[in-house]
Write a structure and sequence with these properties.
about 375 residues; alpha/beta; nine-stranded mixed β-sheet; phospholipase activity; hydrolase; Patatin; lipid metabolism
């Protein structure tokens, strides 16, 4: 049985479906990895199978940026421990400083060289592994931004999708694209890494990090691609039919109580606007999932909405489209105090490239996982 036939059978099975969605966040992906380790252990304990991996448990894995790196590894059947090893032992190599001249001209350049990142991704995923490879055990979504068309590109290995049809598209099928290069494109954060060029058919496109699209949190986009007729997967909706588990890397809103209007010049906007847009989009995607889904668990959205659990109001559909679990936290002094993380400073985990703080990121992730990941979150979806 070829890879696409096996995947088609899995995607068409009548059993309730599970989606795992992984946010972007640079090296803060180490935090998400520890949450994923706790989820993996829950499934192993429930099924009494110490070799179970998340690709056995989730039918669809979606990731943006660092979430795409983690998600692709999990989708290929790696244990969470193997993904953790990759980050802890190769994180510094992936963030290799660019040449001094490039850094000096950072207005037009980037901070890090992407050569070692590309080599490490090829080592993990295989240079010849394509999006349609039989090494990929689940449905996989990778979110990128196409700079030449100025549009989000959510690419999947869905064998039913229009642009994955090898009969119709031939060599132009997205399934022929190198997996490592798609992941690298999704993680090409502006000012951190150079853009990634990809040849699709006779056209060359330039891609940058999916975090600048509305889908840095890809959970709701994954739901749309799993259920909308246009994507030809057409999974059934319902709180007992579909579970979305969304894992964040920490919400870092820029709180500046002493900001003066005179400080808000062109360079200020250039530096802060991407973060503003990313945080707002991530918040909206999470909120949409809680409104249209039945939220089983998640931190509060804000002081007015709280966590959006229970009955939400007459304007909301009484029939929830899916069940939803969100694991994330605020990177702030107040949140750290409430989480019992007073031994750590928020500044230790804010930066996307804080490779020297990976031990702290790991400890924070383990603490959050121990407090938040519970078996009842997956009831009915084991």
């Amino acid at each position: 049985m070829d890879a696409q036939t096996h995947l088609k059978q899995r995607l068409n099975s009548p059993a309730p479906k599970k989606i795992l969605a992984l946010d972007g966040g640079g090296i803060r992906g180490v935090i998400a990895i520890e949450i994923l380790a706790a989820i993996e252990q829950l499934f192993r304990d429930h099924h009494q199978n110490p070799r179970l991996v998340l690709a056995d448990c989730f039918d669809f894995i979606a990731g943006t940026s660092t979430g795409a790196i983690i998600g692709a590894g999990l989708s290929m059947g790696l244990e969470v421990a193997e993904v953790r090893h990759f980050y802890l032992h190769h994180g510094r190599d992936m963030f290799e400083r660019a040449h001094w001249f490039t850094r000096m001209t950072s207005l037009f350049g980037y901070k890090y060289n992407d050569i070692k990142l590309g080599q490490k991704l090829q080592d993990v995923f295989g240079k010849e592994t394509t999006l349609g490879s039989d090494k990929i055990k689940t449905l996989l979504l990778i979110v990128m931004h196409n700079a030449r068309t100025d549009s989000p590109w959510p690419v999947t290995n869905n064998p039913f999708a229009k642009y994955n049809d090898r009969g119709r598209m031939g060599d132009n099928s997205n399934l022929n694209l190198p997996l490592w290069q798609l992941v690298k494109a999704s993680a090409a954060a502006p000012s951190y890494f150079p853009p990634e060029k990809l040849n699709i058919g006779k056209q060359e496109f330039i891609f940058i990090d999916g975090c600048i699209t509305p889908y840095n949190n890809p959970a709701f986009q994954a739901y749309v691609m799993a259920t909308l007729n246009a994507y030809r997967l057409c999974w059934p909706c319902g709180s007992e039919q579909l579970l979305i588990t969304s894992v964040g890397t920490g919400n870092h809103s820029l709180n500046r109580p002493n900001l003066d209007v005179r400080d808000m010049h062109l360079l200020h906007h250039a530096a802060s606007t991407p973060s503003h847009l990313m945080n707002a989009a991530q918040y909206q995607q999470d909120m949409l999932c809680r409104i249209f889904g039945e939220c089983r668990a998640g931190p509060r959205l804000d002081s007015e909405l709280e966590a959006l659990t229970g009955v939400l109001g007459q304007g909301c559909t009484p029939e929830k489209l899916f069940s939803y679990v969100r694991y994330d936290f605020d990177i702030s002094e107040e949140a750290f105090q409430l989480l019992g993380l007073s031994n750590y400073a928020p500044d230790d985990v804010k930066r996307l490239d804080a490779v020297e703080k990976m031990n702290i990121l790991q400890a924070v992730g383990q603490h959050i996982a121990a407090q938040t990941v519970q078996p009842e979150h997956f009831a009915g979806f084991w």
